[in-house]
């Protein structure tokens, strides 16, 4: 299929009339506009493994992640769908047809961020999204990465991004410099043929690079995910905090922009059921489990690790490779 992919087309998909408006939308997705090697995120002591979502319409949402993101449907039944790349499960969907849609003011998922192996892969995917007229909610240059934002059919946020090489990241006193600038779309699209989409499926190296959560209190969230889970702070700005393992820019984002003061999540609604952090070494998992127990966190043993629950009821699984 031949398409006419212009800046105007992409802006229309993002519901914007200018790049500045699209960057502003991305700023709302990442906070404020104040101021890599793509496999880096997976070479750290801890990394994001997979995500499980509760959804009302299993078929509709599974088809979306298959057709729009390019994930392969690995298993599918009336109750669940497992999707991923190169035989690795990245996303599990659980059918909850009677569930209410989780409020955006509740604690829970802000977005799941799919990390492309290369910048060219991001360009190829953007041509694919535009050719299928996929609605976008914003795009931006974050200095450490370049990102496109969208929502699945039930409002679960998605980021598709590519990292810049870590040698280009700017660190100062333990904080990495990030921003929400205009994405240079022409430069990005110069890497691929915009008239002939060639993104048939997600590249084998695509992973979930980071998770971004809505929380009810930022200090309480930092106490749990930094003080207890053990992720390191990499950036703090108004209403948001970012944490990582091994000096990645962030494996976890957290904000209170819509959810300040949120209470316990309602597990009968749609949204994030749990996500996993994978440990590179077995001894690290043992140390993390001890740290959780010493922190007074209720820990549930699993066959391949442990599950803990954050202050708002979001489940995080610490798993061995």
UniProtKB/TrEMBL annotation:
| EC nos | 1.13.11.2
SUPFAM superfamilies linked to this entry: Glyoxalase/Bleomycin resistance protein/Dihydroxybiphenyl dioxygenase (SSF54593)
Q: Does the keyword Repressor apply?
A: no
VOC domain location: 47-163, 207-321
Identify the stretch annotated as signal peptide in this record: 1-22
Report the Pfam families cross-referenced here: Glyoxalase
Q: What is this protein called?
A: Catechol 2,3-dioxygenase
């Amino acid at each position: 299929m031949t398409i006419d992919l212009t800046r105007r087309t992409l802006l229309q998909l993002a519901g914007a009339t200018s790049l500045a408006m699209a960057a502003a939308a991305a700023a709302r997705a990442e906070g404020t506009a104040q101021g890599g090697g793509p496999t880096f995120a997976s070479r750290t002591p801890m990394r994001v493994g997979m995500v499980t979502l509760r959804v009302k319409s299993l078929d509709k949402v599974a088809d979306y992640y298959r057709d729009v993101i390019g994930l392969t449907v690995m298993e599918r039944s009336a109750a669940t769908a497992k999707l991923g790349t190169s035989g690795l499960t990245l996303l599990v969907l659980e059918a909850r047809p009677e569930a209410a849609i989780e409020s955006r003011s509740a604690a829970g998922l802000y977005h799941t961020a799919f990390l492309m192996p290369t910048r060219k892969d991001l360009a190829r995917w953007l041509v694919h999204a535009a050719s299928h007229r996929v609605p976008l909610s914003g795009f931006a240059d974050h200095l450490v990465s370049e990102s496109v934002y969208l929502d699945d059919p039930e409002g679960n946020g998605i980021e598709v991004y590519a990292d810049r090489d870590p040698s280009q990241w700017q660190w100062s006193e333990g904080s990495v410099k990030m921003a929400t600038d205009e994405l240079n779309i022409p430069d990005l699209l110069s890497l691929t043929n915009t008239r002939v989409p060639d993104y048939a499926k997600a590249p084998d190296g695509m992973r979930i690079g980071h998770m971004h959560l809505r929380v009810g209190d930022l200090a309480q969230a930092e106490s749990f995910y930094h003080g207890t889970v053990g992720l390191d702070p990499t950036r703090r700005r108004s209403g948001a905090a970012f944490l990582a393992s091994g000096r990645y820019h962030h494996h976890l984002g957290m904000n209170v922009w819509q959810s300040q003061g949120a209470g316990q999540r309602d597990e009968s609604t749609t949204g994030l059921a749990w996500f996993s952090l994978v440990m590179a070494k077995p001894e690290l998992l043992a140390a993390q489990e001890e740290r959780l127990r010493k922190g007074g966190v209720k820990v549930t043993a699993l066959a391949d690790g442990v599950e803990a629950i954050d202050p708002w009821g979001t489940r995080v699984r610490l798993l061995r490779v």
